[in-house]
Amino acid sequence: MGLLAGAHHSMALTIRVPAMLLTIALISSQHVEAQLCTCSGINMTMDASGSGELGSASSAAMLPIEIENLTVSVGDQCNEFTSIRWTLRGNGVMLSDVTFTISVMNETGFLDLRDIIASDCQDINNTRACGEYLTEYEYITSGSFSKLNPNQLFLVSLRTRIDGSNSMHTVLTPEVNLTANATIPAPGGVIINSTLLGPENRTLSGVVRNSSNGLDLIFENVDIIVFRNDTAYNLSWTQLNGMDVVDDYLAVAELTNSQPSYFRSVNTTVGSTLSVTDIIPTANYTLCLRARNCGGVGPEMCITLIAPEAEPTSARNLSAIPGMMNVTLIWVAPLQPNGNVTYIYSVSVADTTLMGSTMNLSATVEGLQVFTNYIFSVTASTSAGSSAPATGMFMTLQGISGQVTVFTVTTAERSALVIAELPSVTNGNIQLFMVSYQANGSADATTMNFTVTNEPLNGTVESLLPFTQYNFSIRACTSVGCGPPSEDVLVMTLEDAPSMPLNLMASPNNSTSATFTWDEPAMKNGIVRNYTITVFDSMNVVVATTTVSNLSYVTTQLSADTNYIVNVSAFTVRSGDAASETFTTPPLPSVPLNVNASTGNMIRVLIVQWDEPNDPGDVITTYMVSYNGTVIDIDSTDTNYTITGLNPFTVYSVTVLACTSNGCGNQSTAVIITTAEEAPYPPQNVSAATVNSTTVEVSWNVPDITNGLIRYYTVVYGRDDSDGRMELNSTNTSTTTLVSNLDPFVSYVFYVIAVTVAPSNASENDTALTAEAAPSAPLNVSAQNASSTSIMVSWQPPMMPNGIVRSYRIEYSNGVSDVVNVNSTANSVVISMLEKFTTYRVQVFATTVAEGDGSEIVTVRTDEDTPGIPGDLFVNEFNSTVIIVSWFEPSVTNGIITMYEVLYSLGNVSSLVDGVTTVPVPASSVSVNNSYEINIDGLDHFTVYTVAVRAYTRIGAGNLTETFSILTDPFSSSAPQNLVVMVFNSTAVELSWDYPESPNGLIRGYSILDAEFPEIERVILNITLGVVDDNSNQTAVVGGLLPFTDYTFRVRAFSFGDPEDRPNFVHIGISTEEMMIRTDEDVPEAPRNFTAEPTASTMVQLSWIVPNVANGILLSYTVVYSNTTDTLMAVYDNNTFNAIVTDLNEDTAYSFVIYANTSAGAGSNATDSAVTFEDRPSAPPQDVVTTVINSTAISVAWNPPPFADQNGNIVSYQLMITNQNRTNSSAIVVNVTGTAHVAIGLEEFEVYSVEIAAATAIGFGPFSDPVSNQTFEDVPNMEPQNITISNLSSRSFMLTWEPPLIGEQNGILIRYHVIVIETQIHY
């Protein structure tokens, strides 16, 4: 609530009036009166809370007393207490001051409570009078305290009022054993009649008493309120035969839904009637009847009736709180609702009517048009009928306009024309256009408002910067506010002339040159394309003009000691103002005097001397010496300078000029001088040419730089492989000479030295090689056999080669054949194609340009070799496993025969390479005429063998003889080889095998046996070869098998006998070892009993059992589940038959598909579907808006949570309305079904926060963030506090008070009204 400054301070008011009794009324925001009176003889003391104690001026002293020996006697008539005794002890207390309070209670509470004084009590001992001071008394009181229930425990308490001392006693009532009163009676019957009575309005108040004993019963001080209506209920009863004795009946009629409760009761005898008149429509009435005797009150017999509804009167105080697109209708309930009222409301415009119903006193209608007139009505209705409608009219509020879409900006140099059409959606009266524009790079935007009256905009924005990029946007505005900004329009203002360049400076560099620098204009107003520089002399004649693009320029067109003006202007699309600056060039010095130069008897040096100019023009800062185009800045004011680093024997031209800080003057007249001689550069292009084996001609060129006159040359030479050197001096300046007496075929090095006044350095050298001659004989010749047909001959070069040994000639002979020559360029050679095991003589000769002498002769013998082929090989069959092999010695042995070797192999082959069996035969086993023979046994049946023989020397084996083939007798074959069984697919296998190692005949075919039962040779497939004795790899596919099943196979061959002896005899071969294999896995059948059951809002329980036929090892189960937007997958292991799918969307239909997986893949599927449960919303309502209606009402409107977060059907909303100023107050909780609510009955001028939660059938979701608003001010609820008045004089008094409590001020207190009423005092 609003606070009044100093609200906790008391107020004071002084009024001067005549002596009389005054009635003072102090009013804050409502009229409050206070009656004042003067009372003598009364002392009144009040504390800060306003409570107090009123008493006489004096009171007696209070001393302690004690109560002892409390006893209770119980009578036998209806179990009433007949006497109570106690002993009272005290000290200095008057008996007449003692008052006792006697309380009788059972477990349910007090049954009786009464006060007695000591004088009402009998003094048992009669020792003291009642007025004497109390020491020890025993008292008794008697009488019926209450009718009690038999056989029940009661507590009797006695308390003194003087000091609170007390005593308690517990008593058990005896059991009632009277025939007439043995049980508590009950009514004999109830008859309910309803009759129409006339209208009546009255209120009665009284106390209901028991007629038999005069004691208070129940319903003490109950107001009996009679309401006006046209119906009545009559309650009547009769005594049934055989009932217990009944003293009377208690009939009660109770209105259970009224505040305060409505009671009517009657104490009556048998046969009475209770009438309940003026029944309220829809009220709940309970009519009860109980019988009573001395044993107590019997049980109730009740009937509950609900009065019928009636037509209501009309809703009152109908009002509308319009929004832009909604309206909240508020009304007050009918004066006579006459039942459960439903309100039917409607909002209409043109042909559109929106209707609804509610039981609340407000309703919000959404979906209205902005800025539109509507007619609305509210009709109250019960089951008995409807009231006349209450009607009204309203207009929805203006809204924010839509976006401006037609918007153009046309720029000039410093302004822009803005044209915009009205938005397509105005939502009200367009009152102005808000144009915002911002220069590129600027932090702030500028806003310009153009006032219009629902018309397009055509306005100009001034004061823009030239050549600047602007972002323009526009918003159309109603009285409510401005709509969204338009799309940005990016424009550029046009270029304009720039301002003048800044900081122009003219700095003379010397007497003819100056440098001009400047800065860019402060306002370029465009692209500065160039700068124009113009230089004027003192006669305003243009000396130089140019255009540049940079910020500086150097001119060299000036004259010394002259005044100039320079102007510089910038140019964009036009020229701007020019900046101007003046400057003066400095004067130049005259030429130096008496310039001369000398060598000073030094080489490469000139000494230059001079005198200062006659007219230096300024302080000489330096001199510049020039010679042959080279300029030296001396950087000194000395008048001499030594030039070093010159060329010897060279003519130089020397000049001098003087310089000041302003520049340099003219050069002096040139001085001509030549430098001294020194040693020349080395001769060039030295060349040495061979004349013969002992002479070389040397030639060269004159040095590039002679540094003087050449006197002669010296030739220096020596062997290239030695450090020794010799010199040959010429006697003239010829550049050619002969050097003789040199060694043959030797490399010599030559270089030349030139001599002027000193010798030069040696020239670059050149080499020459003297001519060749015949060599001496080769050295250290040796020969060794390299093989049986070759020898290795090696030697060393001649001691004196006298040139390049180009080749060697090797001469050899065996003494029988002619001499043979072999040439070689190396120092060794292999001579091949010689006779095996033969002796040879060898000699070697060397050749350069001519052949020299021969070497010493050496001898050598070729090595042994493999022997030739044995002769006349023959093989004869001895029996089916033995053959005889015979042969003769080779005709060419090529050495000493050491042994023979017999080779044989399976099959008829042309050569024996692989799979050969060898039998060694010593050479000592010689038969007649050099013939050999051997038996070979252990051969295979019906097998072709190929035989050959070869001889051996020390070197190795000779060539084989031609092969000889022979066939052994036939026999049963061995088992096929390399049986392999491979899975072909899930229902077939592929078998492959090789030809039997020992077919022992002609293989005709193969049999595949089922080896599951070894004792039964069951042939499941016979394969007959298309070509008899096909020894290729065989394959066969056995199909019709079961998937993922173990099978065992064997294979055997069957063969022919000897095709000549027994061509039709078949031999059954030996079968292979058993081979076990398992067929491939296949896809399984679908899982069985697949179910999907939702267990929560985001979970579904899946269950299934394994497929009937797995066709392999089940690896996993794949579950694919999807809703209308998403498809997901989960994989479970093969031991999982129950799964919970989580993270699903709430209240969403899902389809589930399950597959079982083997290594072959996924099988057929089973399907089911489920819908997840609803859940609480996961997000609060959106767009919560509060609007203050008056001082006690706030309208609240909102939108539902986002659809994805609703998690089901929104069935209601809960509003939590909290008073932010009163932290201890409880929040107001309201449940509604719509998206708007008007909270009424709030406190005035209080800040309330509103939080809203949405609910599905599961419950409420989170509350929205608090939205706060403050109710309007109202008149205060409380009068000023603690009003006091004090007399100041006979004609004045002081009036003080404190403000109402802060929580009752209902706003900011601005004033008080004090009303003084004059009242005449009568004595």
What does this structure look like?
With 1323 residues, the chain is an all-beta fold. The protein is built from no helices and 99 strands. Strands 17, 18, 20, 21 and 22 form a five-stranded antiparallel β-sheet that branches. Strands 25, 26, 28, 29 and 30 form a five-stranded antiparallel β-sheet that branches. The chain is flat, with a radius of gyration of 71 Å.
What is the number of E strands?
Answer: 99
- Mean pLDDT over the full residue set: 78
Q: What class would the helix/strand composition place it in?
A: mainly beta
Weakly predicted, low-confidence segments = 1-63, 127-135, 175-231, 238-245, 257-271
- Helicity level: under 10%
Give the C-alpha Rg.
71 Å
Largest sheet at a glance? 5 strands, antiparallel
- Spatial shape: flat
Query: How many helices does DSSP assign?
Result: 0
